[in-house]
Design brief:
Residues 5-336 form the FAD-binding domain. This is FAD-dependent oxidoreductase. It comes from Phytohabitans aurantiacus. Pfam families: FAD_binding_3. 37% of the residues lie in helices and 26% in strands. It has helices spanning 13-24, 50-57, 61-66, 89-92, 104-113, 159-165, 231-241, 249-254, 285-288, 297-314, 319-338, 340-348, 353-368, 372-387; strands at 5-9, 28-33, 44-47, 73-77, 83-88, 100-103, 118-121, 125-131, 134-139, 144-147, 149-152, 170-182, 191-197, 200-205, 213-220, 263-270, 276-277, 280-282. It is built from 14 helices and 18 strands. The chain has 398 residues and is an alpha/beta fold. A hairpin with a 7-residue loop joins strand 14 and strand 15 (213-220). It has a 7-stranded mixed sheet with strand order 5-4-13-14-15-12-16, sandwiched between helices. The protein has a 6-stranded mixed sheet with strand order 7-2-1-11-18-17, with helices on both faces.
């Protein structure tokens, strides 16, 4: 990889992590990002299993642990606000074995600080053309440059994937998610509250070092038609989905207008037969989004970046061999983690009032049983097994 010019589309977790590892292997990465600056804030994310090993090999594990959210616990509440069941933060978040939870923006900033390379903010790939010497890239700014390789790390709606692979690959799971910052009007101290109604769930939590709180809404729905650039339309769809709902839902929805980080999208997975085409490859959500319901998107991005850079270096400049080895290493791991998404979301969103009542009763009972920690540990065991379902290689030179 020595002195290879690699363009990475997307300055999220996958893109910045890949830039780090490519530099370690001697390449010259450039990251292009449509946003005018690094995206701050965002939802809390987990680093689990093999991804913890990746962070450790980066020498960043202590810094990651210092940025943990510090969430102490969580409670399930009913429409009146009564706490039906409560548990500690790691159990509530499905964490074990030293897993770390931190805000996406904090992790992204840390990776960016340790990935010194050229970052082109406020620009994006407009066209890709294979040439004898590499990939000619035309940017939206009008600039044109040739790179040895191009990697799309630009999310579930990847522009790079569309240009190099065409349409398709995105599979709607039948749910929508919205996340944004809200005032901490409930006075939460590193605590999470979750309210479950038929076909829709709402939660709010506070973290260390943040005076505000984050709200998340997850609801079942057939496909919705809206302009992805029309925030007002998205807010109306969200309000319509939760019309008449109790608890603190109306107050949380009202805060959406002033939120600087409003996010709304379908809950989807990306499933592709191949992750590379010629000199173009895909990474993270662009290649194998597992959906936020899996809780493994960040870990997949970190592990994928490590493996992709390592296999390209091990292939000694043969990008075809490197891309093929990357797929062989990652596909079983991706399959195990993608399977978590559909299973988890069914537990997060109950379809009927009867299911909600039964779930609340069971949670209330479990909360009073002796040895409840052992019972909850069995519930989170599948997440840990998926998070450790890959043996990381030690690539030469690292």
């Amino acid at each position: 990889m020595t002195n290879s010019k690699v363009l990475i589309s997307g300055a999220g977790i996958a893109g910045t992590a890949l830039a780090y590892w490519l530099r370690r292997h001697g390449a010259r990465p450039t990251v292009v990002e449509r946003a005018p600056a690094l995206r701050d804030g965002g939802y809390k994310v987990d680093i689990r299993g093999a991804a913890l090993d990746v962070v450790d090999r980066m020498g960043l594990l202590d810094e990651v642990r210092a940025l943990r959210t510090g969430v102490r616990g969580g409670s399930i509440v009913d429409a009146s606000g009564r706490r039906v069941a409560s548990m500690d933060g790691d159990t509530f978040g499905g964490r074990a074995h030293g897993d770390a939870e931190l805000l996406r923006g904090d992790l992204n900033r840390l990776l960016h600080e340790h990935s010194p390379c050229e970052y082109r903010f406020g620009d994006a790939i407009a066209a890709l053309t294979d040439t004898a010497g590499g990939v000619e890239v035309r940017f939206e700014s009008g600039a044109t440059e040739t790179y040895d390789l191009v990697v799309g790390a630009d999310g579930v709606h990847s522009r790079t994937r569309g240009l190099a692979f065409g349409d398709g690959g995105v599979h709607d799971l039948g749910y929508y998610v919205s996340i944004f910052s809200v005032p901490n009007h409930l006075g939460l101290d590193r605590w999470e509250l979750t309210y479950v109604g038929p076909g829709r769930t709402a939660l709010v939590y506070s973290t260390a070092r943040d005076a505000s709180a984050k709200a998340m809404f997850l609801f079942a729905s057939p496909p919705l038609q809206y302009d992805t650039g029309d925030r007002a339309a998205q807010q109306r769809l969200l309000a319509d989905a939760y019309q008449g709902e109790g608890w603190e839902v109306p107050a949380l929805l009202a805060a959406a207008d002033a939120a600087p980080d409003f996010y709304f999208d379908s809950l989807s997975q990306v499933r592709l037969d191949r992750w590379s085409a010629g000199r173009v490859a895909l990474l993270g959500d662009a290649a194998y989004c597992a959906s936020p319901a899996s809780g493994q998107g960040t870990s997949l991005a970190l592990v994928g970046a490590y493996v992709l850079a390592g296999e390209l270096a091990a292939a000694g400049g043969d990008h075809r061999a490197g891309f093929a080895a990357y797929e062989r290493e990652m596909r079983p791991f991706v399959a195990r983690n993608q399977a978590l998404g559909p299973a988890n979301v069914k537990r997060m969103v109950m379809r009927t009032k009867g299911q909600v009542r039964m779930s609340m009763a069971m949670l209330g009972l479990v909360g009073r049983l002796p040895g409840k920690e052992r019972l909850m540990a069995k519930m989170v065991a599948p997440i840990h097994r998926a998070a450790t379902a890959i043996t990381l290689k030690r690539y030469q030179g690292l």
